[in-house]
Write a structure and sequence with these properties.
Layout: H1 4-7, H2 21-30, E1 39-46, E2 58-62, E3 73-76, H3 82-87, E4 92-94, H4 96-103, E5 111-114, H5 119-122, H6 126-129, H7 147-156, E6 158-162, E7 168-175, H8 180-200, E8 208-215, E9 221-222
Parallel strand pairs: 3-4, 3-5
Antiparallel strand pairs: 1-7, 1-8, 2-6, 8-9
Helix pairs in contact: 2-8
């Protein structure tokens, strides 16, 4: 059942011609009529079906304006590095005992970081961590000796960009309470990352087929991309 609040929002907005994100952000914010601080979300459809291969993007981007979310970070490391992880701001730190807790289903964290020497133990938990997107990955900077940097990135605005089998990517660029400039900088950081991924994957033609922006409880608008990605 559609709420009275939602019925007051503009209709068929996704059918409108695309606009630059700079013009859309004030409109999307105006549609944030709930009592909580809604997220401003993006949805991309990429051209992942290539002639000779399928494009699978999995990378991270550090949003310069942050995400507005508090991220609970867990670290699996040797006892000798526990103090370093705690001082860097990790919420949960553990070694073999923590791996056992994860094995038994205790996963009260949103980001998991691991040192290389402990990864062999975590790799056995792929069926538990993989489906939840929590398995540490060297390419994403979550398997590292530099725990301070990894923890800082995770807490300050690092988000993962990953497409599903149908070529969809969904992620947030911040909150309604963010000023427009901060949201635009986050949006541009995402586009720059996708542009690099296009080059790395040698995509023929445009990588992004379509892009839409909305708020958590709002309506969707087509985004006109200023770059040829």
């Amino acid at each position: 059942m559609t709420s009275k609040r939602f019925k007051k929002l503009p209709e068929k907005t996704s059918n409108l011609d695309g606009e630059l994100i700079e013009k859309l952000i004030p409109v999307i914010k105006k549609n944030c009529t709930t009592k909580f601080d809604e997220s401003i979300d993006l949805s991309f459809q990429i051209n992942n079906k290539q002639k000779k291969s399928e494009v699978n993007i999995r990378t991270v981007v550090n949003l310069p304006g942050g995400t507005g979310k508090k991220v609970k970070v867990a670290v699996v490391c040797e006892d000798a590095k526990s103090a370093e992880a705690k001082s860097a701001g990790a919420d949960i730190v553990g070694s073999d005992d923590f791996v056992e807790k994860i094995k038994n289903g205790e996963m009260n964290f949103e980001k998991l970081i691991c040192t290389p020497s402990m990864m062999i133990k975590l790799s056995k938990l792929g069926k538990i961590l993989g489906p939840k997107g929590l398995m540490p990955n060297p390419k994403l900077g979550s398997v590292t000796e530099d725990l301070k940097t990894a923890i800082s990135n995770a807490k300050s605005g690092q988000v993962e960009i990953r497409n599903d089998k149908d070529g969809n990517i969904g992620l947030s660029i911040g909150k309604k309470s963010f000023n427009d400039d901060k949201l635009i900088k986050n949006f541009n950081a995402i586009l720059e990352t996708l542009e690099k991924e296009k080059s790395n994957n040698t995509v023929k033609g445009e990588l992004i087929k379509s892009a839409f922006a909305t708020s958590t409880m709002g309506v969707s608008y087509k985004v006109k991309l200023g770059k040829n990605i």
